[in-house]
Design a protein that fits this description.
There is one protein chain. The protein has 12 helices and 5 strands. The radius of gyration is 42 Å and the shape is rod-shaped.
Length: 366
């Protein structure tokens, strides 16, 4: 419940208590005989009617609650005609407003009609109030109905705000998890393969040196140093990618190839690619090249880029004298990463053996 709504309810409760106290001090006659007894009964019944304000809405809407509201309406209307110049006359419109707030429309209107009719009849009997004015006592039901509608609208607004806040928090968590996944993928693409390559070369150098093949061992160490240098370059490119800095597709791919056995051909360079699409395509090519170097070291690798106004395709093909080792060997995170990158930009990814080698093809439509 909002603070405003709670304050309004507390203020209304104070008004009712003050009205009841004032009525007990102002209604006359009150006694145990004759008209005084009638006044006492009507005042007690009216006070009970005011106390119904504390009942929850579900009690009002029950058959028992509707019956009690009808009885209370009769008492409040009769008190209006019995003591029209005292605070007791306020019981009728207050109760009609309460009925409009607590009850559905039809029962609320019924209670209001009963209030007005009771007040009208009492005014005729007592000759102490204008009958026409008594008929207006039940009109306060519309005030209660309007307040009920405003409170319901306020409740729905509060619920919608809560739902919106939860949705924003959920979206924030999803974005955070997506960012974590992206960073993890970048770390794997850059560091895992670079370090594994260095480890392989150092193990090879150790084995060669133990067998007395000093020159070959030194070459393996130089290859490891080159792998470290290449890894640092890839780390720098990964940092730029994490920063979402713009990169040209062809320039980004050309920066990935290394050595005479790796080459790039370009047949049209599309200019409609977004920075995100370009970055993901470059990272897919980088993953494919890393896998080719790992599973078919020294084998020729060719990257073909073809672009039109509506489509771009990038094909990475590495040749091999023997059957290529599937990229799924090991953890398989690289292939999963390429698939996630392709799905993120709506591209089609195909990976598999072809012509005695291995092909990675990614196609993206505008």
């Amino acid at each position: 419940m909002s603070t405003r709504r709670r304050v309004m309810q507390e203020a209304f409760a104070i008004v009712i208590v003050m009205t009841v106290v004032w009525a007990w001090l102002s209604v006359t006659p009150i006694g145990t005989r004759g008209r005084g007894l009638v006044g006492l009964i009507l005042l007690v019944a009216g006070t009970a009617a005011m106390a119904m304000r504390a009942l929850p809405a579900r009690r009002w809407e029950s058959p028992w609650g509707v019956g009690a509201a009808v009885s209370a309406a009769i008492a409040c209307g009769a008190l209006f005609g019995f003591a029209p110049t005292t605070a007791g006359a306020a019981f009728a419109p207050i109760f009609a407003g309460m009925a409009g707030y607590r009850l559905p429309t039809r029962p609320a209107v019924l209670v209001a009609v009963i209030v007005s009719v009771s007040a009208f009849v009492a005014a005729l009997v007592e000759h102490r109030a204008t009958p026409g004015l008594a008929l207006l006592a039940g009109l306060a039901v519309f005030v209660g109905m309007g307040r009920r509608d405003r409170m319901e609208a306020l409740r729905l607004t509060e619920e919608k705000l809560v739902q919106t806040q939860r949705a924003v928090e959920s979206e924030g968590r999803a974005q955070m998890l997506a960012e974590r996944t992206r960073v993890a993928r970048e770390i794997h693409d850059v560091l895992a393969h670079s370090l594994s390559g260095v480890n392989m070369q150092l193990n090879l150098a150790d084995a060669l040196l133990e067998n007395g093949r000093t020159e070959d061992g030194r070459q393996a160490v130089r290859d490891a140093q080159q792998a470290v240098s290449d890894g640092l370059a890839e780390v720098r490119r990964a940092v730029y990618a994490l920063r979402d800095e713009p990169v040209d597709l062809v320039a980004g791919i050309e920066g990935l190839v290394a050595g005479d056995h790796e080459s790039v051909t370009v047949d049209g360079a599309p200019g409609w690619l977004s920075d995100v699409q370009t970055t993901q395509l470059v990272r897919i090519v980088g993953e494919a090249l890393t896998n080719a170097r790992r599973h078919a070291p020294g084998a020729p690798v060719h990257v073909a880029v073809a672009g039109t106004d509506d489509q771009v395709s990038v094909v990475v093909f590495n040749q091999s004298d023997s059957t290529a080792t599937p990229f799924t060997k090991g953890a398989g995170v690289g292939l999963v990463g390429m698939g996630e990158r392709a799905a993120q930009i709506g591209a089609r990814l195909q990976v598999g053996p072809a012509d005695g080698g291995w092909t990675v093809r990614v196609e993206l439509s505008r």
